[in-house]
């Protein structure tokens, strides 16, 4: 699948959903639902046990200066993944590890040229660690992209490979 140009999160989400749907084959069916808690929910039925996984998609542009998640009031499912509203504290490592079995975040940098390493593929633990000033309700939550190493950024073909591996149970 060709690397998309994208001007919005929705366009990147559509490209990723199409790439995931393209992995569907007889005996290895894949269904993608949009807006099912996070941006994409994927249900895969293959030779191994059925698998459900979820993706939060972010599109970053340098001119915006930030990569927010949740809404401006610090509400939303992304916040609930990383912050325990019952205890009033960020989720502990054991809780986040449970989410990391089924949830991945994908970030595409619109400011970088097509064909370059402009994508991130990471779990909730990394999202929590990259949150500026920590995750909490009641504030605008943003990812601090400088928390990711240069070699964390990957190309579109590598991203598609990691997504396919995750969807089909490889990690």
Keywords:
two-stranded antiparallel ribbon, alpha+beta, 171 residues, 27% helix, 5 helices
Task: Explain the overall architecture.
It is globular and about 45 Å long. The protein has one domain. Strands 1-2-3-7-8 form a 5-stranded mixed sheet. A two-stranded antiparallel ribbon has the order 4-9. Strands 5-6 form a two-stranded antiparallel ribbon. A hairpin with a 4-residue loop joins strand 5 and strand 6. The two termini are 22 Å apart. It contains 5 helices and 9 strands. The model has no long low-confidence stretch (mean pLDDT 92). The longest helix has 13 residues. With 171 residues, it is of the alpha+beta class.
What is the CA-CA span between the terminal residues? 22 Å
Question: What structural category characterises the helix and strand content?
Answer: alpha+beta
Individual helix count: 5
What overall geometry do the principal axes of the alpha carbons give?
globular
Report strand %: 25-35%
Strand order of the largest sheet: 1-2-3-7-8
Instruction: Report the uncertain regions.
Output: none
Main sheet overview: 5 strands, mixed
- How confident is the prediction overall: mean pLDDT? 92
Alpha-carbon Rg, integer: 16 Å
List SSEs in N-to-C order.
HEEEEHEEHEEHEH
* Number of beta strands: 9
Number of domains: 1
Helix content: 25-40%
């Amino acid at each position: 699948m060709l690397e998309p140009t994208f001007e919005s999160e929705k366009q990147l989400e559509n490209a990723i959903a199409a790439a995931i749907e393209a992995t569907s084959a007889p005996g290895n069916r894949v269904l993608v639902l949009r807006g099912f808690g996070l941006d994409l929910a994927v249900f895969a039925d293959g030779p191994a046990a059925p698998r459900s996984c979820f993706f939060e998609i972010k599109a970053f542009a340098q001119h915006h200066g930030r990569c927010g998640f949740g809404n401006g009031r610090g509400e939303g499912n992304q916040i609930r993944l990383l912050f325990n509203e019952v205890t009033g504290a960020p989720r502990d490592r054991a809780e986040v590890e449970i989410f990391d079995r089924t949830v991945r975040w994908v970030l595409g940098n619109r400011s970088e040229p097509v064909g370059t390493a402009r994508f991130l593929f990471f779990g909730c633990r990394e999202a929590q660690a990259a949150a500026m000033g920590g995750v909490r309700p009641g504030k605008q939550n943003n990812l601090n992209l400088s928390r990711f190493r240069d070699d964390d950024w990957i190309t579109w073909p590598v991203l598609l490979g990691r997504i396919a591996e995750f969807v089909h149970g490889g990690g």
